[in-house]
Design brief:
The protein is of the alpha/beta class. The protein has a single domain (6-195), classed as 3-Layer(aba) Sandwich (Rossmann fold). It has 5 helices and 7 strands; from the N terminus they run E-E-H-E-E-H-E-H-E-H-E-H. It has a 7-stranded mixed sheet, sandwiched between helices. The protein starts with 5 loop residues before the first strand and ends with a helix. It binds guanosine-5'-triphosphate (GTP) and magnesium ion. Guanosine-5'-triphosphate binds next to helix 1.
Length: 196
């Protein structure tokens, strides 16, 4: 799929205020600073469509973008950001969980994982929660440019093995990406195309 058109629609912290249209929707979620907003800019070929930052905690709302007048792409706040207050953290968690439970338009979520890190409890728990809720998701490994090419395959294999040793009988689809080198762009967009 090619993205010809990408426009910002709305930001909000309440799932009931998200766009009422029935367009299919794809959401990007993962730990703070994992590269969600950067990936969205890479996929859409827009440098600043989604706001990015070197400091974790940049995206604080549910952000809808309209793609090709056909589907919504959603940028979500990251989980696991230690430096926001407990109250704010609860607040984020509440509207992100509400979003996943209530948003009927959601076709698939992409759970982003920094390829440089060994499996982290917070990500594994989040994926288990998604599985328990019956929410379809895929894994997107980010920042592949930060790892030597020879290390990519063994790293991914080790990660997938951890999932299979844990709660999962089969691994979800996964993608290896880099917002810097644009690796994985076509594979991810083509996958979305097959689900539309
Ligand atoms: P929050 O909104 O805070 O949850 O973060 P986010 O997941 O949206 O991350 P964001 O896209 O803002 O990127 C965080 C940092 O990682 C920025 O400094 C980006 O430049 C950097 N970054 C993101 N993707 C890549 C990548 O593929 N390669 C490299 N080298 N850096 C990346
Ligand atoms: Mg962000």
């Amino acid at each position: 799929m090619r993205i010809k058109n990408a426009t910002f629609v709305v930001s909000n912290s309440r799932v009931d205020l998200c766009p009422k249209t029935r367009l299919p929707e794809f959401a990007f979620i993962g730990r703070s600073n994992v590269g969600k907003s950067s990936l969205i800019n890479m996929l859409t070929d827009r440098k600043q469509l989604a706001k990015t930052s070197g400091k974790p905690g940049k995206t604080q709302l549910i952000n809808h973008f309209l793609i090709n007048q056909q589907w919504h792409l959603v940028d979500l706040p990251g989980y696991g950001y230690a430096r926001v207050s407990k109250k704010d953290k609860k607040e984020f968690q509440r509207y992100v969980t509400d979003y996943f439970i209530e948003r009927e338009q959601l076709v698939n979520a992409f759970v982003l994982i920094d390829i440089r890190h060994t499996p982290q409890a917070i990500d594994l728990e989040f994926m288990e929660w998604m599985g328990a809720q019956g929410i379809p998701f895929s894994i997107v490994f980010t920042k592949a440019d930060k790892l030597a090419e020879s290390k990519i395959e063994p790293t991914i294999n080790a990660y997938i093995n951890t999932l299979l040793e844990g709660a999962w009988e089969s691994a979800p689809p996964f993608f290896i990406t880099s917002s810097s080198s644009r690796m994985g762009k076509d594979a991810l967009l083509d996958y979305i195309g097959t689900l539309l």
